[in-house]
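Dear Dr. K.,

Following up on our conversation at the group meeting, I've run the structure prediction for Catechol 2,3-dioxygenase-like lactoylglutathione lyase family enzyme from Allonocardiopsis opalescens. I'm pasting the input sequence below exactly as I used it, so you can double-check it against your construct before we proceed with anything downstream. Let me know if the numbering doesn't match what you have in your notebook.
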Amino acid sequence: MIEQMHHTSVVVEDLAAAVAYFVELGMELEGETTVEGPSVDGLCALRDVRADIAMVRTPDGRNRLELTKYHRPEAVGATDAPVNTLGLRSIMFTVTDLDDTIARLRPHGGELVGKLERYENAYRLCYLRGPAGIIVALAERIG
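The predicted structure tokens came back this morning:
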């Protein structure tokens, strides 16, 4: 049986930029470390792994995001995949002020994927692409 979901992991090119982006969003840096060695190689099914990891968490402490920068071997993949690409595409956060959040994330590389939209009388929503192509879905409750 599952006890809890511990974290989601995202591979990034620029760890400092990714940490700054998520801290600006409102997450808190929990810690940073470097991982390497035979157990990391075995876990990842790669050779000679060396990676820096930063763990950020939501203010309530319930959810974590692991941001990983691979030094060895070099990371692979596209950073501009559309929102309907198979696999993990977005991480959603509820925010108190959507316009303010977008404005604060733009200097950190946040770009709207589509348009800011209203969903019924429940939410204002948008997708914002950030460092390493990470798509952050943002939702502001209405009413």
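Two things stood out to me. The first strand starts at residue 8 and ends at 11. The radius of gyration is 16 Å.

Best regards,
J.T.
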